[in-house]
Every structure is written in structure tokens, then in C-alpha cells.
């Protein structure tokens, strides 16, 4: 008897199968035939839901975005958490301190997932920057920060963090420590706060240490 499934259920089955295959074989090493075989569907069914393998990848990245950014947004919206602590927690939520986030990062850092890595980095930068910028604006109103460019400041911070502190970026412990100190030092200058006042935020990088 032929099993007819709801569109959303079938779509998620395809995404689950692709996610597993991309993890095992990489995006480049996975074919649409591999996905068809794993789900057990006809090619027409696959193309009913997704136009291409890249379309499947984009849908997976959207899944990752929701999982990673929703938690960050929830923290950012919690006015009961002090502003600076909120910034730390938002960054740590992305950084991938949670198990699911760590799996995602291990997944996309595989060489065969280079395109996936590039796309998710773009999504993360465009997603986290406005969240952090809103916290900076709130802190500015409270007199904690003094910057006329909250969005641009956080954009630079996120881009640098996503580049230099990327898991693929090979640094010695000494080089990493120097860049961490320099990073926080320049954030203090951009935000117009007293030198050394944000150095305690370096604990957000603890999970990046080997």
C-alpha cells in the first residue's frame, strides 16, 4: 500500500536525510540519488519540495538559523539580565556552547561543506548583528555605552569574531590570547567605555580554547 504523507512531514524527512548525508559525506560528496535512496522516494517527489540540492542546503541553513538565533533573541529580550551580561550570554548562545550548536559547527567546518559554511556565516552575521545592536542601544540609553554607530560597531565585532575565532582559523594559544585581549580592548574603544571595564567578558571565549 502506498504511503501518502503530509507535505511538511515529507519535507522534513528529506531535510533529515540530507542533514545526515551532508554530515557523513559532505555537501559536495552527496548526490540527489543518495538523498532519494535514503528517504525512499521518487525524484519527482523530491523536486516537488526542493528545486535542487542547493535548495535543500538553504532549507537546512534556515533550520540552523532558527535553532541558533531564537535562543539568542530570547536572551536579548530578557530585561531582567544586565546589559553587559546579556551581550555575553547572546554571544555564548551562538558560540556554540550548546551541544546542538557544536554539532552544527563541526558539520559545516568540514572541507566538503565549504559552500554551506560560507552561507551559514552570512546568515549568522546578518542575524546576530541586529540582536546585539539593540542591546547596545539599550545600554547607551542607560549611560553604559557611548557610540553613535551601534549596528556598525556590532557588525564589525561579529565579522571579526566569525573570522578570527572561527574553528578553522589555526592559532597558537599565545596568538589566540593576544587576539582575545585586542578584541575586547577595541570593543571598549568602539563602545566608548573605560579601558579594562569589559575584560571580564573574555570568558565568552573559554569554549574556544583547545
What would your notes on this structure say?
It is a single chain. Helix content is 68%, strand content 0%. With 210 residues, the protein is mostly helical. It folds into two domains: 1-50, Arc Repressor Mutant, subunit A, CATH 1.10.10.60; 54-208, Tetracycline Repressor, domain 2.
Task: Give the arrangement of secondary structure elements.
Layout: H1 7-25, H2 32-39, H3 43-49, H4 53-76, H5 83-94, H6 99-108, H7 114-141, H8 150-164, H9 173-191
Helix pairs in contact: 1-2, 1-4, 4-5, 4-7, 5-7, 7-8, 8-9
CATH superfamily label of the largest domain = Tetracycline Repressor, domain 2
Q: What's the end-to-end separation, in Å?
A: 53 Å
At the third CATH level, what is the topology name of the largest domain?
Tetracycline Repressor, domain 2
- State the helical fraction: 55-70%
Overall pLDDT level: 83
| Number of helices in the DSSP assignment | 9
Q: Which percent range describes the beta-strand content? A: under 5%
- Domain count: 2
Give the radius of gyration.
20 Å
CATH class of the largest domain: Mainly Alpha
Largest sheet at a glance?
none
Q: How would you sum up the global shape? A: elongated
Level-2 CATH architecture of the largest domain: Orthogonal Bundle
Coarse structural class: mainly alpha
Instruction: Count all strands and give the number.
Output: 0
- Low-confidence parts: 96-102
Order of helices and strands: HHHHHHHHH
Amino acid at each position: 500500500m502506498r504511503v501518502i504523507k503530509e507535505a511538511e512531514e515529507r519535507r522534513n524527512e528529506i531535510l533529515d536525510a540530507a542533514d545526515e548525508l551532508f554530515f557523513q559525506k559532505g555537501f559536495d560528496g552527496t548526490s540527489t540519488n543518495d538523498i532519494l535512496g535514503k528517504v525512499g522516494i521518487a525524484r519527482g517527489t523530491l523536486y516537488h519540495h526542493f528545486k535542487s540540492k542547493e535548495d535543500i542546503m538553504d532549507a537546512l541553513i534556515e533550520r540552523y538559523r532558527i535553532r541558533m538565533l531564537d535562543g539568542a533573541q530570547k536572551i536579548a529580550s530578557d530585561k531582567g539580565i544586565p546589559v553587559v551580561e546579556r551581550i555575553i550570554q547572546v554571544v555564548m548562545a551562538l558560540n556554540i556552547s550548546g551541544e546542538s550548536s557544536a554539532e552544527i559547527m563541526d558539520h559545516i567546518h568540514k572541507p566538503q561543506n565549504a559552500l554551506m559554511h560560507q552561507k551559514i556565516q552570512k546568515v549568522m552575521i546578518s542575524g546576530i548583528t541586529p540582536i546585539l545592536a539593540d542591546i547596545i542601544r539599550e545600554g547607551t540609553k542607560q549611560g553604559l555605552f557611548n557610540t553613535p554607530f551601534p549596528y556598525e560597531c556590532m557588525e564589525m565585532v561579529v565579522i571579526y569574531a566569525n573570522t578570527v575565532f572561527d574553528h578553522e582559523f589555526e592559532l597558537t594559544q599565545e596568538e589566540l590570547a593576544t587576539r582575545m585581549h585586542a578584541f575586547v580592548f577595541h570593543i571598549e574603544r568602539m563602545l566608548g567605555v573605560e579601558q579594562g571595564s569589559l575584560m571580564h567578558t573574555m570568558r565568552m571565549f573559554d569554549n574556544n580554547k583547545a
